[in-house]
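A reminder before we start the practical. When you read a complex entry, don't treat the lines as separate problems. The point of joint prediction is that each chain is placed relative to the others, so the output describes one connected object in space. Small molecules and nucleic acid strands, if listed, are placed in the same frame. In the example below there are two entries. Take a minute to note the order of the lines before looking further.
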Amino acid sequence: MYRYDEFDAAFVRERTEQFRYQVERRLKGELNEDQFKPFRLMNGLYLQLHAYMLRVAVPYGTLSAPQLKMLAHIARKYDKGYGHITTRQNIQYNWPKLKDVPDILADLATVEMHAIQTSGNCIRNVTADHFAGAAADEIEDPRPVAEIVRQWSSLHPEFAFLPRKFKVAVSGAAHDRAALKFHDLAIEIVKNDEGRIGYRILVGGGMGRTPYIGYAVGDFVEKPDLLAFLEAVLRVYNENGRRDNIYKARIKVLAQSLGQTEMRERVVREFIEIKRAGTLQVPQEERARIEAYFAPPAFEALNDAPLPTEGALGQWVASNVHKHRAPGYAIATLSLKPIGGVPGDISHEQLDGVAQLMDDFGYAEIRTSHEQNLVLPHVKQSDLPAVFARLKALGLATPNAGLITDIICCPGLDYCDLANARSIPIAQKIAERFADLERQHAIGELKIKMSGCINACGHHHTGHIGILGVDKKGVEFYQLQLGGSATEDAAIGEIMGPGFGENEIVYAVERVVDLYVKLRQPGERFLDTYRRLGMEPFKNIAYQEQLHAAH
Amino acid sequence: MPLIKDGVLAEDLYTAVDDDAPLPEGPVIVSLKRLRAERDSLLGRNQKLGVKLTSAESPESIGSDLERLSLVVLEFPKFRDGRPFSWARILRSRLKFDGEVRASGDFLYDQIAFLQRVGCDAFALPPSVTPALFARALAEMTNVYQPAADGVKTIRQLRSEP
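Here is the predicted structure of the whole assembly.
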């Protein structure tokens, strides 16, 4: 893991004091809410429906055991005993008091954490593949790149007041687990024909009310040029992004209106100039210094063994354990989606319990995933039964990773100021309907993603089944979208038609899923069957029976 | 409104002039539109000349007349409009402008350090920022992670020093 040096530590400490001063001014009335807002947002503090919400940065989703313990402490001391893992790998607290926030940030700083740039119209906290450093299909660990980007973007003076927020993701694997094509900017680590490693840079992806899939502006950016290239993209965006309409201000809208050719030309023009100035080049020594922090643990020389297949352990292994690059090791997903629970929520007891597990098994790090789960990246296969038993005791062994009840869900109208509809209760009802494990495993990989408004924090556009909550004259309705995908086969889901009522949506989802099970060919995931058959049969079944039910 | 120049309170030698107002004696600040319309007479006055850019106007649109100017004012219509940060950077880094670059309008306390980093050396302080607050704003953060137009050593450079 990355460790702060004296400069990083001083930076976060000073930033905390700076924020403490701002909060004092706000509490004394020297700043009004409008003046305070951009600054609190740059430090991850939102004013929500009922209270402030603090979003703590988990850079590229990597945490140590001491950090987990601190997150537990904060949940206990300043909040209602739990936190919530977000779709950008961060953790947020829903009930902090404004006067406590500077102390929370000071506590976080003691374990090298902060809330810098987790909101606001700036370059947001950088995300990465949650299997980084462990995945069998990886070219290179994306986290050193993400850390270089984190440092460069921290309080970047030119890009702190962009037209809109700017989200960056990094992946170094063949299979895209970081939703690259739906980010404002994505860095894909690639190998060229000569065997050299560099970066493919995508821009203009995004969800929200107008979803777009990003396109490439740089096919192979050399390693030392990375930041110069990023700075070029950001300058083109800062100069030209729309500021007259908040809904058209993301870079995706600029990317569409300029088109790929024009965007590439403008970026390259800036890039050549920035590169020539030389000051932003990332020298080999600095890359090596940062890469050294992310060196993999010393894996023992082991062989792959047959994994357990029987009973509850076998079920958990089937869905929550993934292939590791080192023989004898495995990656394990800790599901934060217990049936009937709030997707992504984790209690202080669970945070402490996971930290203890890490200490006991000698794990240096754990990951948060954009699918709102935790991931232990390096588990010895022979430890899987013991780890499973511990997780079970903590309530973190739900065997549903990647299955229909592993639902991505935004906080919705229960917490959020922007939401039009509740999302958590609907996700809970769907999970309860499909709670039967045999049935879940029989259905196989199926990603349901749900948002309570068109801002799409729950990524509904990229759900195999997406659900969007809308408000129609004070009544909540839920629209279905089918066929979305956030991976390398990126697709935006197709809207089925008019929304379903709160009580009907669960039945509609079930009818769609049952039809898939009936029509699928061997080996087909829901997404594959949908792509083969199209919307028609699913639409017919979803609405047809609704009519029967109404009469 | 108080003017800070090179870190200290300073007298504003310029008069900002509306597009349709007669020109007073002494240095003036005009809009880009007026500079274009009255270019020859403005440049021929043998007085210091400043141009005020709206946030939508890139300094590149001044063209080669930039070298005849001694001041470029960057106007913030709203603090949220961050284009002037890029304009300042372009003035200093690309166009090598070495006259005064002055931030003006609705900028905030929290933006002062950023503005200095991208190349502003003068600040027409908004009512919310006193000279004492201004000084504090520049002292809050010691080191920086990225190069800008201020020539300050970055943390990476400091790391590689013995």
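Discuss with your neighbour: The interface with chain A takes residues 58, 79-83, 85-86, 89, 93-94, 108, 110-111, 113-115, 117-118, 128, 140-148, 154-156, 158-160 of chain B (CB under 8 Å). What might explain this?
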